[in-house]
Amino acid sequence: MPVKALGLSALCLLFLCLLSLLIGAGDVSPAESLRALLGGGNDNARFTLFELRWARTELALLVGVALGVAGLLMQAVARNPLAEPGLLGVSAGSSFAVVVAILLGASTASLYLSAAFIGAILGCALVMLVLRMRGVGDDPVRLVLAGAAFTGLLQAGSSMILLSDQRTADEIRFWVVGSLAGRPPETFFWTLPGLILGGLIALPLVRPLAALALGEQVAKGLGHHPHGVRLATLLSVALLVGAANAAAGPIAFLGLIVPYIARRFVGTDIRKLLGLCVLLGPCVLLLADIVSRLVVRPYELPVGVVTAFIGAPILIAVVRTHRLPSL
């Protein structure tokens, strides 16, 4: 089944990449886009395809992989199906740091990435503290409520900054809702190192995290160090979320949706889930981005709005499935 699921996911990803190149909210039809892709077409079609949609599709691949894997890692280290970067405040911490950086005069992509990473690190540290709180870390509902409180606090802080500084508000207005549109082509290249480094840290953690899923004492008995595994995992999550947020802004629920779908196919073993999430993350984000181009044509919705519409029912389903009998 894992091989079949991987094959189907890979085919789905290729199909969605093609759709992303051919379909848009503008006046270039899919037929014109296809001719441009095959080497023909007019100048307008070639510009739309290769300068706009191509870069957007590349960015969706990177951000989808980063957030899909980050969601899986966070759920594994927290041993909680609702431990998602957007729900627990990691993305909000990253976004708040970027807002503060812009307020202080940051204007280059590298500074955005550094600020997003630092904010994600602080968000991950808070998650660790919340997980150690008695009665919170073991309860999915209370964990999400704690994350929502932290997210609301940071969003309120961001809003205060945006209301008090017009330049910051103008620069970040569209970024803060999560979008793949309007990003310069070089965005892909300066966020790629964060994805690669986060992935390289995550790969050796797969076996320790699989052991940690059996319990801390079992993991220690197998020669692993749970505290070190948690720290390394959250460092990987911070790199992945920081890179994704710096590139596309905070995109809600993707880290919840992707592992949830993957578990429907291959179960709960993280060794099987990781490869599938690498493929499903871009699939879900590309699908959401294609929908965002079509539902209000000739305008577009931010992709973060679409993922929120997809993720909200999944959040309710997960809460209902994992709620405690006493609730």
The CATH topology annotation reads as ABC transporter involved in vitamin B12 uptake, BtuC
CATH architecture: Orthogonal Bundle
* Count of domain modules: 1
Task: Provide the low-confidence segments as ranges.
Answer: none
Largest sheet: none
- CA-atom Rg in angstroms: 20 Å
Number of helices: 15
Helix coverage percent: over 70%
Tell me the total number of β-strands: 0
Q: What is the CATH H-level superfamily? A: ABC transporter involved in vitamin B12 uptake, BtuC
**SSE order, one letter for each helix or strand:** HHHHHHHHHHHHHHH
**Span between termini:** 36 Å
Shape call: globular
- Backbone structural class: mainly alpha
Question: Any overview of this molecule?
Answer:
The chain is mostly helical and 327 residues long. The protein has helices at residues 2-22, 30-37, 43-78, 85-88, 90-103, 109-131, 140-164, 166-172, 187-202, 206-212, 216-221, 226-248, 254-266, 270-294, 303-322. α3 (43-78) runs antiparallel to α12 (226-248) and α14 packs across α15 (303-322). The longest helix is centred in the first third of the chain and has 36 residues, at 43-78. It is globular and about 65 Å long. The model has no long low-confidence stretch (mean pLDDT 83).
